[in-house]
């Protein structure tokens, strides 16, 4: 039976027509999805500019669904999750990016950097440390080292923090000399708590030679020497602070008086404080220290009067009144208690970075975690 080729005359046009129709449908679908992705992307930007993070996240999720190869959308989405505090979803987004085999080396480093910050914000310090360590030697090296320094500080790993601060010193982030001195002081404090005063002393004596501009190093050295019964050594450390960091004399005015009394050097400390008071704005702490060095009460009160002539101070006025009888036995304790209560907020120290106030002086702010953000003056004197 001969083969009939006439059916090809019908099959070829039909196949061509079906192929053309299928291509048109695919092209239409591709164009439709292409239009949806930009719309969702721009809608997300609109919500983001209007600080509508929830709506922006929904729009970006839709855009990623239509264009799963767009790495920038993943970065934007992960950043939004992190800003919102949804760290678990941010981690998933950036881990999904890292799992892609077609990601370029630059984008992979960027995703690793974003993932490390997710862990840091979430408080997962061990995972953050591992993630930032993987970025050492990359274009994110300086930022990774700075983040690792923060991780070590939060974990109170002061030895590694000091080593990292030393590698960062003098780089693009500036000087870390004073920050490293804080780390050494924290190490010395830990040694003191363990009863290893000799090691703490050696550590601090080396540090003040290396960073004489660190007020905390001198203060901590004085405390260690005092704990070892070295009254003269403690006084010498505080006198050295007055020479190298005169701005912090109000902070150590009372310890200076105590060290002077133990060493029999009251006159030397009196002269130092008087000279400081002549060259600097009035300080209640310095005035009170000078008043405690006077031999009679009337001379001490004159110190407060002189302070009030230079600067009005409720704290100084209250200290002056403490040595003056008011003449009314019934009202006197009430008046003194009211004045004392009114003075208490003025005696606090305030962080210059975040405004956190505290009764004691902090080298490391509990509020913003900043170093040396507390001025050595009290709130009333700022």
Q: Looking at the chains present, what oligomeric state does this protein adopt?
A: single chain
Beta content: under 5%
CATH architecture of one domain: Alpha Horseshoe
CATH class of one domain: Mainly Alpha
Stated plainly, the CATH topology of one domain is called: Serine Threonine Protein Phosphatase 5, Tetratricopeptide repeat
Which value, in Å, is the CA radius of gyration? 34 Å
Major sheet details: 2 strands, antiparallel
Order of helices and strands: HHHHHHHHHHHHHHHHHHEE
Per CATH, the superfamily of one domain is Tetratricopeptide repeat domain
Read across the widest sheet, the strand sequence of neighbours is: 1-2
Question: How many strand units?
Answer: 2
Query: In whole angstroms, how far apart are the ends?
Result: 112 Å
Membrane topology: Single-pass membrane protein
InterPro entries: CellSynth/LPSAsmb/PSIAsmb, LapB, Rubredoxin_2, TPR-like_helical_dom_sf, TPR_rpt
Keywords: Cell inner membrane, Cell membrane, Iron, Membrane, Metal-binding, Repeat, TPR repeat, Transmembrane, Transmembrane helix
Main location: membrane
Structure description:
One of its GO terms (molecular function) is iron ion binding. The chain is mainly α. Among the domains are: 70-98 and 107-170, Tetratricopeptide repeat domain (Serine Threonine Protein Phosphatase 5, Tetratricopeptide repeat); 216-263, no CATH class. The protein is built from 18 helices and 2 strands. The protein has helices spanning 6-49, 53-66, 71-84, 87-98, 105-122, 125-133, 141-154, 158-168, 177-193, 197-210, 215-227, 231-244, 253-263, 266-279, 284-292, 297-310, 314-321, 332-343; strands spanning 349-350, 357-358. A two-stranded antiparallel ribbon has the order 1-2. α3 (71-84) runs parallel beside α5 (105-122), α11 (215-227) runs antiparallel to α12 (231-244) and α13 packs parallel to α15 (284-292). It is elongated, with a radius of gyration of 34 Å. The model is unreliable at 20-37 (pLDDT under 50).
């Amino acid at each position: 039976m001969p083969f009939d080729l006439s059916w090809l005359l019908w099959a070829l046009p039909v196949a061509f027509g079906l192929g053309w129709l299928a291509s048109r449908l695919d092209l239409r679908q591709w164009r439709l999805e292409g239009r949806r992705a930009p719309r969702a992307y721009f809608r997300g930007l609109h919500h983001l500019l209007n600080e509508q993070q929830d709506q922006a996240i929904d729009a970006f999720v839709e855009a990623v669904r239509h264009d799963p190869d767009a790495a920038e959308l993943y970065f934007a989405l992960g950043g939004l999750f992190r800003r919102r505090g949804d760290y678990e979803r941010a981690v998933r987004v950036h881990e999904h990016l890292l799992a892609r085999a077609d990601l370029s080396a630059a984008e992979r480093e960027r995703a690793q950097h974003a993932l490390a910050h997710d862990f840091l914000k979430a408080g997962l310090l061990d995972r953050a440390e591992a993630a930032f360590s993987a970025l050492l030697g990359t274009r994110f090296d300086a930022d990774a080292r700075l983040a690792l320094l923060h991780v070590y500080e939060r974990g109170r790993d002061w030895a590694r923090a000091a080593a990292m601060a030393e590698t960062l010193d003098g780089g693009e982030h500036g000087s870390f000399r004073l920050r490293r001195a804080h780390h050494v002081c924290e190490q010395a404090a830990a040694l003191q708590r363990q009863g290893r005063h000799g090691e703490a002393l050696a550590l601090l004596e080396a540090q003040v030679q290396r960073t004489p501009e660190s007020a905390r190093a001198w203060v901590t050295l004085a405390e260690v020497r005092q704990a070892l019964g070295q009254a003269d050594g403690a006084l010498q450390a505080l006198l050295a602070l007055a020479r190298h960091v005169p701005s912090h004399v109000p902070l150590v005015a009372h310890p200076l008086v105590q060290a002077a009394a133990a060493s029999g050097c009251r006159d030397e400390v009196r002269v130092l404080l008087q000279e400081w008071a002549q060259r600097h704005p009035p300080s209640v702490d310095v005035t009170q220290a000078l008043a405690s060095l006077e031999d009679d009460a009337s001379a001490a009160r004159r110190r407060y009067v002189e302070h009030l002539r230079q600067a009005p101070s409720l704290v100084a006025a209250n200290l002056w009144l403490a040595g003056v009888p008011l003449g009314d036995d019934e009202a006197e304790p009430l008046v003194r208690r009211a004045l004392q209560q009114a003075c208490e907020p003025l005696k606090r120290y305030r962080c210059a970075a975040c405004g956190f106030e505290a009764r004691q002086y902090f080298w490391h702010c509990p509020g913003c975690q900043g170093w040396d953000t507390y001025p050595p003056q009290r709130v009333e004197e700022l």
